[in-house]
Amino acid sequence: MDFSASPDTAPMPPTPPARPSARLFWRWWQKKSPSQQDRYATLGPLISVLLFLAAIIAAFWYLRNEELERAQESVKRDTEVVQQQIRLRLVENQEQLQRLARDISLKSVAPEAFMRQAGDFVRARPEILSLSWIQANGTVKAARTALTLPLDPGVTEDIDPSGNPADNYNPLIEGKLPLQAFQLAHDRNQPVYSHPFPNQTGASIVQVHVPMVDRNGFQGTLVAEYSLESMLRYLVPREVGSRHAMGLANPSGQLLTSTFGGNSKTTSHPTFVHDVMVTPVGNGLMLRGMGYKTSGDLVGNTLFWMVIALSTLTVWTLMGTLRHMRRRSQIQKTLVQETNFRRAMENSMLTGMRTIDLEGRITYVNPAFCAMTGFSEDELLGCVPPYPYWPKDRLDEFHRIFQQELLGRSPMGGIEVLMQRRDGTQFDARMYVSPLIDAQGDQTGWMTSVTNITEAKRVRDQLTAAHERFTTVLEGLDAAVSVVSVQRGELLFANRSYRIWFGANPDAHTQLTGGEIMPDEVIDSDESVDNFGGIPTQALTNAGSDTREVFVDSIQKWFDVRARYVQWTDGNLAQMLIATDITARRQAEEAAARQAEKAQFTSRLITMGEMASTVAHELNQPLAAIANYCSGMMSRIQSGTIDQEQLLGALEKTTRQAQRAGQVIHRIRQFVKRSEPQRQPCRVRDITDAVLDLAVFEMKRRRVTLNTTVANRLPIVMADPILIEQVLLNLLKNAAEAIDSSQMPQSRRHIDLRVQQRRTDDQGEVVEFSVSDSGPGMKEEMLERLFEAFHSTKAEGLGIGLSLCRSIIESHHGRIKAENIYNGTSITGCRFTFNLPIDSSGEVDFADTGTPPSNDLLADNP
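RESULT FIELD:
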């Protein structure tokens, strides 16, 4: 049906009412064309039907949400009621268990009495599976389970106190969670609930551990096991269970048991769920209320679908009418749309368009071409060569290009030309020429598109110059620079140094980076998936460079290698490497290490040279004794006045003196033996014993008493024992020389050596060696330069001893320092202290005393 009417046959509209709003409406209505009035007349009923349909759907949606909210509120209310019931029951049971634990701890309840009380406790509480008495060592002293309860509450069981009542049941063997709860009850001294776990029968249970404490401390726990299934069965009210299902879930949300089906494997999914924490259990045990939808859906009733069907039919009818009206005006709109589209395209294009006929006369230019050249459309239309935008000094060049254009020989990639504006300024442009074909397929001219490339050319020239500067700098570097594509493994760039050392081979890049250029973040075990689809380019390129030192055997050079990931010019991920030749530096470091080793060896020789006279005196004693014993035995053998027993005794004494001399020589040879530094697990007691055997000669010669205090419980340290002995012996010798050179009285001629374990803020646990003397001390300005090389406080000193000591200790990651000892404002001596870090995997050195450690940590050994 055609509801529209032509302007000649359209009926006259009724007289508008006199109200201002109505007058405005009719004035607006009269300004519309008949087709627009028909369209609005059709859209009015359509909008009304759609609004009616929306209102019906909103009403049904509101009613359905009201029903869901009431059901959700009911589930929440019932869940909180059950939570309160369970909390009250658990608190009551916990208080009863605490009273029973106090009775056992304070009144020394016998196992027989505990079994009776436990039986009454378990029998009155069906949710409890067992009650056990666990001792402090984890063994079960008595246990009562629901399965072992006698049928008659008045019957008691005979228990043999000498037997083990836990032969058949131990609640701590259920797994790791009961042991954790037992340990927490021991540590916190308060009841602790375990995480839910399955027992040996597969049922989900929770244990509560109530500690038993007396005057002697922790005596064990009372362990009650709750069955989660029984807890729901007996503690959920019947009226609540008839309305909604209740369940218990673990921290991960897995349903452990429920009143609907008894487990979490039911195929029914609840519509309404509300979770609350089960107190005082905690540990993530959640009470879950579940509601299931039982009523029919409001949307599924007949009335709703009837309204939807009628509204759809009405909308379909109105849409048919609207399509009929649209087809009537389609032809009229087509021409307007085409014209408007062409005009909008012409005005919005940034590319200049110019059309010439077969004779070269300009027939069309768009606004972009006019804006580009500065000439108006009227000035350009009808122009023939030479065109006004041709530069006067390039007319021959443009004529040649124009002839190629007319002949159809213009390059497919365009022509780069220099054009002139109306104001005389020039700009770079690129022209593309294509034939202009009319509707009949005949060529009527040529269409030329012009693009201003002045800015693009300037940027391109700048990029070219920047690239040349960049390449020149990289080619002049002494370091090797290379870039390899992560995806293809292709060498993208290599500078001159890289090509000289390694050629154009990407394998050298891989060797320098350690054999892998693929980031660990994108390694995927599934080869069917494209690893580069998820490469975190931004995170990788923002990460810092990785530094390592690599030795290339083929060219016998050391390189300091720095590698990082960059985004290459094509947008793909690449790895850039900078390898600096550090062969000279490594050789210098190795030479310095060899010189330091020689200096350490020389220091030990100097030390032993200074002690030579004392060592020779010490060796004279056993050698003289051996000579005397031998002379005496020869005289008595010649006279026949010695028997076999006396001869054996004299030989035994001679052997001991020879062994004593051999030990002295062995200690000296070990000390001065030249060897490579070896860091190995060392016992502190062995180091101090070796030093004391060598230092005793110097102490006797200088009449100095050495007091030694070495802690018993000292851990193993990672060190070179010979170097540590050298440091400690040097400090003891310096202390003895300071006392002897100052002519101290005998009361102040003593040195204290103390070795103990300490904890520092910056190093953690360390073993500290302290050497304290009673000498004159040192000046503060001398303390500041004490460890400098070739600085000595002795007239004949070389000044390398303490410097070597500091180098040795710092190479072991330790610290060494010197300080004066004050008594008020008077200096009474000097103290040298150094420490060694403790090996994290080391064990306590119990072998120092031959017995396990006791509460007495320090033993004095003067």
